Amino acid sequence: MFNPQLATFVCVADCGSFSQAAEKLYLSSTAVMKQLNALERHLELKLLERTRRGTVLTPAGEVIYRYARQMFADSERALREARAAAQAARSAFCVGTSILNPCRPFMDLWYRFCGHFPGYQLHLVPYEDDHQGILGEIGALGEKFDFLIGACDSRQWLDRCNFLPLGEYRHCIAVPRGHPLAGRKELTLAELHGETLMMVKQGDSPSVDRVRAAVEAHPQIHIEDTPQFYDMEVFNRSVQTGHLLMSLDCWTEVHPSLVTLPVDWNFTIPYGLLYQLRPGADVARFVALVRGNGPA
Fold first, then answer.
1. Most buried of 66, 177, 210, 255 (most Cβ within 10 A)?
2. Spatial separation of the C-alpha atoms in residues 202 and 30, rounded to whole Å
3. Nearest-5° angle of CA 127, CA 129, CA 132?
4. Which parts of the sequence belong to the HTH lysR-type domain (predicted)?
5. pTM check: above 0.85
6. Distance between CA atoms of 102 and 96, rounded to whole angstroms?
7. How far is CA 178 from CA 238, 243, 256, 258, in A?
8. How far apart, in whole angstroms, are the C-alpha atoms of residue 156 and residue 55?
């Protein structure tokens, strides 16, 4: 954090002699004198007077000595604060949050188990629900985030992270507010005959595949494939086209122009805690606490 020649100068000034400073610094007297000579040449100042009884600070040396002492104190304080900041960074969980995958369920867990992590803090890290970039966000677990919360049985997601189920969301159908079905309290598949239903194609999510198989048993329902992972553009397209959208009960408030309605089926998808494949000790300990106690 500072010039070692300056530290040698302060030591000589404190000791009053080159020989005593050399002993304290585990150097030879010659090495100490060379460092002082180099410092004086660099500063173009005479800092010490050599006398028979030792060394004495010059007026310029007294000024440099005073500021050097202050610099050393500031340097030590800076190091303490930097180490404390580094420790604080290690003593925090970074939790991702987005419109479709809000961190609220994690907050409920945190307030149950935070007593096991004294001194720990939470950093909420927002991210975009981008169907093209979501796999990159999942892959950032352990770097950008420690935890995400989301509905998940995607094979592509589970290749990139660990998943601890916490509960289930119900599959529902989102209906544009101006649609004739928007006033219904619950839908049946028969009521969807003649409609276009937007939903994810088969092959990545077992729970979605089961729903899709049930819908395909009604050929009168036209299915429009969406991107593999939803983002706001999917919800916007439903509103713009007037098409129905396969949704979840947790997304009721995502788009104000859509009404999310239950369907007379029992299809659900698990939601839970996503974390890196090789978690650190504290992340693993938090997961173990949640797993051992179960959801509230």
1. 255
2. 80
3. 110
4. 1-58
5. no
6. 8
7. 12, 11, 12, 9
8. 73
pLDDT tens digits, 151-203: 999 999 999 999 999 999 999 999 999 999 999 999 999 999 999 999 999 99
**Contact by Cβ (8 Å): 18, 32:** yes
| Full 3-state SS string of the chain | CCCHHHHHHHHHHHHCCHHHHHHHHCCCHHHHHHHHHHHHHHHCCCCEEEECCEEEECHHHHHHHHHHHHHHHHHHHHHHHHHHHHHHHHCEEEEEECCCCCCHHHHHHHHHHHHHCCCCEEEEEECCCCCCCHHHHHHCECCCECEEEEECCCHHHHCCCEEEEEEEEEEEEEEECCCHHHHCCCECHHHHCCCEEEEECCCCCHHHHHHHHHHHCCCCCEEEEECCCCCHHHHHHHHHHCCEEEEEHHHCCCCCCEEEECECCCCEEEEEEEECCCCCHHHHHHHHHHHHHCCC
Tokens 């002492």 map to which residue?
69
247 closest CA partner among 195, 211, 194, 206 = 211
Contact 280/120 with Cβ under 8 angstroms? no
Cβ atoms of 175 and 182 within 8 Å: the answer is: yes
Dump pLDDT digits (tens) for 225-275.
999 999 999 999 999 999 999 999 999 999 999 999 999 999 999 999 999
Q: Which residue has the tokens 């979501």?
A: 134
Residue 164: CA count within 13 A, CB half-sphere: 22
Strands 48-51 vs 54-57: parallel, antiparallel or unpaired: antiparallel
Burial class of residue 204 (count of CB atoms within 10 Å of its CB; 0-12, 13-18, 19+): middle
